[in-house]
Design a protein that fits this description.
Strand 1 and strand 2 form a beta hairpin. The chain is α/β, with parallel strands linked by helices. Helix 3 crosses helix 4 and helix 4 packs across helix 13.
Length: about 500
């Protein structure tokens, strides 16, 4: 383009466009550097206590005078945590020798008191034993024909040399502690056992197939509640038919169900499409809380009401704040304003946390809706002045597009302000994925989904995961009918609760 033919206004407009592009790219570069090297926390230091005065006049802010000098607090030594009283205890006694029992005057010393001077935790390394199943045979000595063999207790994996306790430990180490089978293989070798990683993989797949009836009951339970939280995270599977090794597959995670009957359900799928979301929510009518991913939009055609997530909104404004240059005072102030208003919404949620759903709804209608109205007015005002392609502009645009879904949590006390519950359920899988990296086959990925569903739901109901796995791996081979499987639900913890658990949730 010949700049000589352009007037000053056109040149100025071109320069402004180029400057906006440069500013947006610099902002993205700063954000990328912060994500890689900066703090992961979303906590923000609100150093402008009076910036919300025009937006939230009802909120009183106290100004803190700046001190003349900086005071450095003295170092405080942390208190030692008390030792658990539930652990078995043994005592180590210390006595004086016979020579030391003689006093200077020649008399013999007499014990007058004993004192516990120190308490320590002790660790006993794992001990591996071999269980020999001996089946006794009986015969009639008269007719010599009637021979009977005492039946062996059904095993979770027939003809396997792994006991229930060993299988529960392997699954717990993998799904709860994020320990890959390769590392477990070395651990077992140090204990004198030769268990190959591919053997543990086959065991995991077999245990997942054994647990299928429980997963089916989990599906029924999650559809019985008023709301389902849903999210998805990538997973790599190497040997998928018709797909490249580097193609992403996904683990979908749902959390829901009635009160005290809630479950966490993992589901492996090659796709992140809306068809997968619709199949997971088939025959369900209620609320689905999720992020702004477009694949969930088709659920509204099934009669499902979508609810947004304010944690995603807060995260986008927090990223915009972190990526702002220190000289961009106006941009930083606007990001602070949005985060400050959102903080007030979360403060209300913290105060009403212990209320029942009906009381929560009333409090939200009274306290949260006025703040939401002020936030909407602020968004409408700032949308006209902020560059759409900047991080702040993207945060405002995302909030505006999701607004109807974001405010729906005020319509029902069973809903949350965000989808963090489901994101917390995803975290163990994401942490474990850093260690084991991928699943080799689709069968392994499906087994992952089943075993993570069992361990995470067990934790949701206060179980030590290994204890719950021992219970179900022992009882599942014996189960014959629906009632037997319902007794193994994680909310059934003793015989007194079994009758109550048989009532379908």
């Amino acid at each position: 383009m010949d700049t000589a033919q352009l007037d000053k206004d056109e040149l100025r407009e071109i320069i402004n466009v180029q400057q906006e592009k440069i500013a947006a790219l610099e902002e993205q570069l700063r954000l990328a550097a912060l994500k890689k090297y900066g703090k992961k926390s979303e906590k923000t230091d609100y150093d402008h206590p009076d910036m919300f005065a025009d937006l939230l006049p009802d909120i009183e802010s106290e100004e803190t005078p700046e001190p003349d000098c900086i005071e450095v607090s003295t170092h405080k030594r942390g208190k030692r945590s008390k030792l658990s009283k539930d652990l078995p205890t043994k005592q180590v006694h210390y006595y004086l020798s016979d020579n030391e029992l003689t006093c200077q005057c020649g008399s013999c010393l007499t014990e007058i008191k004993s004192t516990i001077s120190t308490k320590q935790y002790d660790y006993v390394p794992a001990k591996v034993t071999v269980i020999e199943h001996v089946q006794h045979k009986y015969a009639c000595q008269s007719c010599k024909n009637n021979i009977k063999v005492a039946p062996k207790e059904p095993q979770p994996i027939p003809k396997s040399n792994a006991s229930v306790n060993l299988l529960a430990q392997i699954v717990t180490a993998r799904c709860v502690d994020g320990l890959p089978f390769a590392r477990q293989e070395k651990q077992w070798q140090r204990l004198g056992i030769n268990i190959k990683r591919n053997t543990m993989s086959r065991w995991a797949i077999a245990l997942a197939q054994l647990s299928t009836p429980l997963i089916n009951l989990f599906e029924d339970a999650i559809r019985s509640g008023p709301v389902i939280h849903c999210d998805e995270t990538p997973q790599q599977v190497n040997k998928e038919p018709g797909r490249e090794v580097n193609q992403k597959s996904y683990m979908w995670v749902r959390l829901g169900g009635k009160h005290n009957r809630q479950v966490v359900l993992y589901h492996y799928d090659q796709s992140r499409s809306g068809a997968t979301a619709r199949s997971l929510m088939a025959d369900y009518k209620g609320y689905v809380q999720c992020d702004g991913y477009s694949a969930y939009n088709g659920l509204e055609l099934q009669g499902i009401t979508l609810v947004g997530c304010f944690a995603h909104v807060r995260r986008k404004f927090n990223e915009a704040l972190k990526a702002c240059h220190k000289k961009e005072i106006q941009q930083r102030t606007k990001a602070y304003q949005a985060l400050g208003i959102i903080k007030e919404l979360y403060k209300i949620e913290k105060e009403i946390k212990t209320l029942n759903p009906h009381e929560k709804k009333l409090k939200r209608q009274e306290l949260s809706i006025p703040i939401l109205n002020k936030l909407k007015a602020w968004l409408d005002q700032q949308e006209k002045t902020v560059l759409p392609k900047s991080l702040l502009g993207k945060a405002i645009g995302y909030t505006q597009r999701q607004w109807k879904k974001l405010i729906r949590y005020c319509d029902c006390g069973d809903l949350d302000i965000d989808n963090n519950r489901d994101e917390r359920a995803i975290r163990p899988f994401a942490i474990g994925r850093r260690a084991w990296l991928f699943s080799d086959t689709p069968a392994g990925a499906h087994a992952n989904a089943t075993l993570y569903s069992l361990t995470e739901t067990a934790k949701l109901h206060g179980w030590e995961p290994s204890e719950y796995l021992k219970r179900i791996f022992k009882e599942l081979p014996k189960a014959q009918c629906a009632e037997d499987f319902e007794k193994l639900m994680p909310w059934v913890k003793d015989d007194d609760n079994i009758v109550d658990a048989l009532v379908k949730c």
